[in-house]
Design goal:
Residues 1-19 have a biased composition (Polar residues). The protein is of the alpha/beta class. The protein has helices spanning 19-22, 41-47, 51-58, 65-76, 84-96, 111-119, 133-145, 160-163, 184-194, 220-234; strands at residues 101-105, 125-130, 153-157, 172-177, 195-204, 238-243, 249-254. The chain is built from ten helices and seven strands. The structure holds S-adenosylmethionine (SAM).
Length: 255
């Protein structure tokens, strides 16, 4: 089956909100035809203080000692690992898809890798890419501490856009991106080539720490993340979702 084609439109503006998120309360036309919904319900849900709900959801699945140690090493290294909630979502996606082969772009010290490995099949192989060998060494140790045999992971040290073209077309069930946000559109092209039909691509940090969701920000990263959201949402060959865990986990299933 051919890879779904993506045409990247020029980077500009903010993705147009869908009807269910941004209509004003006085606009009665926005209310979707759902039982129990009234004009303004969605507006109140968006504008209310949801911080406590989100914090609860993010901490809902507890992390064990191996993850706590990997997370601590990540902070010492000055990195931002996936949150517990994002890690749980990655594990769920890997498990739901019965992932046997996954690619991670941005190994860090191994927090997301442990979550992915825990969701993957017991005979699954995680290929993880990072430009920094010291970090990969820490991740190797973290996987070992989490109980994974060395043959469950393949470490490739290099820049993502040098490494990804060398990986096998259609050979992967899941691609997780957590490296240079400005390269995410390129990672998407590579991921669509790497994924089998029905495979999942995920991008950590889609919100750009709030900058990508605020049209006042025009820095390169914010613009590129907006464009990524638009392309992933509007491509006919993808079934997308934007999960609001931590800094936003943008996911899509490849047709
Ligand atoms: C946020 S950290 C990854 C955290 C990891 N996913 C976790 O949850 O533990 C981002 C990592 O991407 C790596 N990185 C950044 N740009 C890269 C690139 N262009 N190619 C490969 N790795 C890159 C960094 O060295 C860093 O280890």
């Amino acid at each position: 089956m051919p890879t779904p084609s993506l045409t990247h439109s020029p980077i500009s503006g903010f993705p147009t909100p869908t009807d269910t998120v941004a209509r004003a309360e006085h606009d009665s036309a926005w209310t979707p035809d759902l039982p129990g919904r009234r004009p303004g319900d969605g507006e109140r849900a968006i504008s209310g203080n949801r911080q406590a709900d989100w914090a609860f959801a993010d901490a809902f699945v507890a992390e064990d000692d191996a993850l706590v140690r990997a997370r601590a090493r990540s902070h010492v290294a000055g990195l931002r690992p996936v949150s517990p909630g994002t890690g749980a979502a990655l594990r769920l996606l890997a498990a739901a898809g019965g992932a046997k082969a996954a690619v991670e772009i941005g190994t860090g010290t191994g927090v997301s890798g442990i979550h992915l490995l825990r969701g993957m099949r017991q005979d699954g192989l995680l290929t993880t890419v990072d430009s920094e060998p010291d970090r990969q060494q820490l991740a190797r140790e973290a996987y070992r501490e989490a109980g994974f045999a060395a043959n469950r992971s393949r470490f490739i040290c290099g820049r993502a856009l040098d490494v990804l073209p060398r990986l096998t077309d259609g050979g992967y069930d899941l691609v997780f991106c957590d490296a240079d946000r400005r390269e995410y559109l390129d990672y998407l092209d590579e991921a669509l080539r790497l994924l089998r039909p029905g495979g999942v691509v995920c991008f950590e940090g889609a919100f750009g720490r709030g900058r990508a969701l605020d049209a006042a920000h025009h820095d390169d990263e914010a613009l590129r993340l907006r464009e990524l959201m638009r392309v992933v949402r509007d491509s006919p060959g993808l079934a997308p979702v934007l999960l609001p865990t931590d800094d936003g986990l943008l996911c899509a299933v490849r047709a």
